[in-house]
Design a protein that fits this description.
2 copies of one chain form a homodimer.
Chain A lengths: L22 E10 L5 E12 L9 E5 L24 E2 L4 E2 L4 E5 L14 E2 L4 E2 L9 H14 L5 E7 L1 H12 L4 E7 L7 H16 L16 H15 L2 H8 L18 H16 L2 H13 L6 H10 L3 E7 L7 H13 L4 E6 L14 H19 L6 H5 L14 H9 L5 E5 L5 H8 L4 E6 L2 H9 L3 E4 L14 E7 L8 H11 E9 L4 H8 L25 H11 L2 E9 L4 E3 L3 H4 L2 E7 L1
Parallel strand pairs in A: 3-6, 3-9, 4-5, 9-10, 10-11, 11-12, 13-14, 13-16, 14-15, 16-17
Antiparallel strand pairs in A: 1-2, 2-6, 7-8, 17-20, 18-19, 18-20
Helix pairs in contact in A: 1-2, 2-8, 3-4, 3-7, 4-6, 8-9, 10-14
Chain lengths: 604, 604
């Protein structure tokens, strides 16, 4: 890789010049903001992609991040690249052949929507420091006004990453009836203290720049370009990860690119930062940077779990959250807090931590596109299926790539038996749900609520493809996301033997569910005993090539062990179904000898 | 916690005033630096604690970090606090009743040792930009000159954290015969790209400050205090962790302290940063900041594993490395790289990742003091025992707190059997060595080299207390730290059954050792079979209260399973010892039935 290649990033394609295809909605004022400020007039710059359906039920609103704009995608081959071209376009995950996509520049920004560098119609001069402070709520409100002006009362979905994710949260609680589903990516309920601290240092660099002139620099020869560039350099560090920075810059660590700059260019990463800082000041306004980061930093969707849950309760949409493992600007624990709140508030929610070493920027990059794109695409598709009954393409869609006709189902005696134990209409949580086969059968039977928990990223994606609600969690960490008695049945199907924290998981199951259904291989089964008699450890894992040293099974128990465990813990066994999966029969007598799999229904 | 409490930190106790007890060594020049620069004169400011022994064999040199100085500890109750008072003092981990401790201000600093704000004797004015660039090597050389002037040819130990750790590395390779042991804490072979990037932004803030005047600000009314304060704010963020920042500032997030500052004080973390930035400029010189961070950033002890190993090979000391799990300025993977190199270079090395949520600063804080202090204290003590044969306190030390007489040993038939299988004088690696009992017996038998691997932090500490070389690793991650054929024997004693990655670990054992010795519970043992016959899973874990759901055992195998596995993998079983640990006897016939533990010697 040459040093020059390092400078390409999704961001560096943006120039300062005006974009084609930008439309503008003007709202006469005065517009009163939640901060108490008043705007004499509001202008919102936006772009649209695709066609609004006759029922106006295919609109998808995309929120950009801090330094983005309305140009989410290129409109044609001649057009400038968009910041999310990977995701948005004809035939892409957010398919503009099917959806009507809208993206607007944020209030307080500097790319066409009213902000500090707009002309104040009252004075004929740029607002500068007279631009009032704004909140994320005000940004959301301005885009709500835009939608109403377009005659769109309800969105199929909102998608937002980073700052866009905060806006999505706020929208969900503020305009609950106006959106069917929200996908919030690489975001959190509020900035971490660390992220806040970086914003503060960035703002200090801007306001300390002697060319800032207290924000009144528009009529000066020079603006606070040094301070803004330093702010941007800092931002860039937080968008990348340790790993991605090492990968990008370590090979040519000491080779800085020659640049016309007053900043340090000794190291490759130094010249990269100097370059990015310099480019940014050409297209971004320092007052906008201050206004937007202050709005971002003041945003607080809930400092405590209770506040988060109460905000989440106001929402009425389905939620999709995704975070990236190496994102340290919005670390995964923040997404988990949101997911926990959604679960507590009994919202339909899916969640995935996407393994990535690309840091916060991962949501804009190609590396993990199949996963985050797949999640978003499937989420949209299933919203469409569920929420657009009069859409003529519905039947067609059922047969398209996201909804291929299912293969003939393998007979699964254990699933049949579990299904027989679960009364219709009950709420069911399936722990270790895999690719969602049991959940799908429950869903088709019309259960009130079926939710899955799965640890493997790709299996979570498969569940979301099926339109299931699934949350990525490691059972060994416990299930504090779920409330007491939140489900009627909690199922642990052939998963007990793979869990290290058996006591914790079973305790959690009976906290969350009225009944727990547990199926596990019975080590007492005559074939297993015979294997040991003949000198071999029992082979409870039937997969070919899998044996003692490479099985996922780490717990070995007999039916009696389980019964004693339940007695010891004070769990009642209400029902017990013994299966001989080899013969495909239910076992009536001498369960310990004759059953290779036991299903037990537990309660307290 | 009040907002005010938040401002206390180990650093904030330092004032700008001159310290008592500081001595100065003056070396007439010219002193030629490795960078090509020349100093007309070199002055080194230092402090000492305790008494140098008659044999001059108890000297411990401590290196300070970026913004520290010679005042590592208070000299008495009236004295200013030192930056490592927790660790250094009479009766403390670095016991100044036993050791003669020396700490000097670094070259290029601004606390008494020659630096940019010193008077250049050639001009009678402060150096300013005329101060030549320096390297970490130059810093090390200046302290070597100090030691020689004190008549100390060999140090018992060097201790350094952060920048001090880099200096310790450099010393180890540059003056190998002059030090018996080096403890390098929270450090790495070079800055990560991310850490480098933060330094670059910090320097850009300083050099862009209009009051910097290209470094010639000493005769001006004002210096680059804004730029330096911004640099310091950034530094503070990197010294803390996500968790520690949230803990410190989240409760009063929006309550900034009123300060006389031009910086933002809206948020509690903002006023903290403004306060720390403001305090720092009172006591630190911007040119020193530039000089030292440039030396730090240019330092590269090895970009590749080969270079690292070749540097490590030059050293002749024992090494102790410790890192902190939440340190993101010097992440644990960097310490691991150093440890890998030390192992590859066949150096005596111990290593521990200390679990902490305090970030980089953890090495200066009380939270994890028992662990890092314990490691350093034990390391020093054992160096003393091994390396000070004519020390009159040696016998006394053998009985003191770090070397209590061992309790009568429990009979361990399996250990006896393993010892009988290991010829004297061979090199032995013990995987999952626990608190080091087997290693200790091997060491006492005078083996050429015995090394342990253990995953539990507290067990690693126990091994270091015993003077053993132990490296903290999770076996499931593999053993790439070790070279092919580095040991004669690799032992895995009653640990196989707790490992998920059995294939990987056994493969690694036979890559690293000529022979592998593996002991494991044999599931075919008649008592285990009987247990299963009677309806219960075999209880291979003998600890009381431990059973199928809470044992650490996750792999179950019989002797035959193991033999088949070895055949399948092409491992030869050279010896096999079958034990009945219940009767305490070696089993002669029908091993599968009669042995509860099997020990096998494997080779390729």
């Amino acid at each position: 890789m040459s040093t020059n290649d390092l400078f390409d990033s999704s961001d560096s394609v943006r120039s300062g010049r005006p974009l084609a295809h930008v439309k503008t909605a003007v709202f006469p004022g005065p517009v009163t903001l939640t901060t108490g400020g008043v705007l004499p007039e509001l202008q919102v710059a936006y772009e649209t992609y695709g066609e609004l359906s006759p029922h106006k039920d295919n609109a998808v609103l995309i929120f950009h991040a801090l330094s983005g704009d309305s140009h989410v995608a290129a409109h044609d081959d001649q057009d400038d690249p968009g910041w999310w071209d990977l995701l948005v376009g004809p035939g892409k995950y957010v398919d503009t052949n099917r959806y009507f996509v809208i993206c607007a520049n944020v209030l307080g920004g500097c790319r066409g929507t009213t902000g500090p560098d707009s002309i104040n119609p009252k004075t004929g001069h740029k607002y500068g420091v007279d631009f009032p402070p704004i909140s994320v709520t005000d940004i959301v409100d301005s885009q709500r006004m835009l939608l109403q002006s377009l005659g769109i009362e309800r969105l199929l979905a909102i998608i937002g990453g980073s700052l866009g994710g905060l806006m999505a949260l706020e929208w969900g609680a503020r305009y609950p009836e106006s959106v069917a589903g929200i996908a919030a990516i690489a975001t959190g309920a509020r900035m971490t203290t660390q992220a806040l601290a970086f914003d503060i240092v960035a703002r200090n660099a801007i306001i300390s720049d002697p060319n800032f002139h207290g924000g009144q620099y528009y009529d000066k020869a020079e603006g606070p370009s040094v301070g803004l560039a330093i702010a941007r350099m800092l931002g860039h560090i937080t968008y990348l990860s340790q790993e991605s920075m090492n990968r990008k810059f370590n090979a040519n660590r000491n080779v800085g690119r020659k640049l016309d700059t007053t900043f340090e260019t000794k190291f490759s990463v130094g010249s990269y930062l100097a370059y990015q800082g310099g480019k940014f000041v050409e297209r971004f306004d320092a007052n906008s940077y201050l206004t937007l980061t202050l709005a971002l930093d003041a945003f607080d969707w809930g400092a405590t779990r209770e506040l988060l849950v109460s905000n989440m309760r106001r929402s009425m949409c389905r939620w999709l959250f995704a975070s990236f493992s190496s994102d340290w600007l919005f670390p995964t624990f923040q997404a988990r807090e949101l997911v926990d709140a959604a679960i507590k508030a009994d919202k339909r929610v899916s969640y995935c931590t996407i393994k990535s070493d690309c840091g916060h920027d991962a949501f804009l990059l190609e590396n993990e596109l199949p996963t985050y794109g797949g999640l978003i695409g499937s989420f949209l598709h299933n919203l469409s299926l569920d929420w657009r009954p009069h859409d003529s393409e519905r039947r067609q869609m059922l047969n398209d790539s996201y909804g291929k006709p299912s293969k003939p189902r393998k007979v699964r005696l254990d699933y049949d038996s579990i299904l027989a134990l679960v009364p219709p209409m009950t709420k069911v949580l399936d722990l270790g749900c895999g690719k969602g086969d049991l959940l799908m059968r429950l869903k088709e039977r019309g259960h009130e609520r079926v939710v899955g928990v799965e640890v493997e990223e790709q299996l979570v994606l498969k569940c979301v493809e099926k339109g299931l609600d699934v949350v990525q969690l490691d059972l060994n960490d416990g299930l504090r996301s779920f409330s007491d008695h939140q489900f009627d049945f909690v199922v642990l199907s052939k998963t007990l033997q793979t869990i290290r924290n058996v006591e914790l998981v079973l305790n959690e199951m009976l906290r969350i569910g009225t009944r727990a259904i547990v199926s596990f291989p019975n080590l007492g089964y005559k074939k297993y005993r015979k294997q040991l008699q003949e000198g071999h450890a029992p082979q409870t894992d039937p997969r070919p090539g899998v044996t003692w040293y490479n099985t996922n099974d780490v717990r070995f128990l007999t039916l009696s062990d389980f019964e004693e465990f339940c007695e010891h813990k004070g769990y009642k066994i209400f029902r017990k179904v013994a299966l001989d999966a080899e013969t495909g029969e239910i076992v009536d007598d001498n369960h310990t000898d004759n059953a290779d799999v036991v299903i037990a229904v537990l309660g307290r």
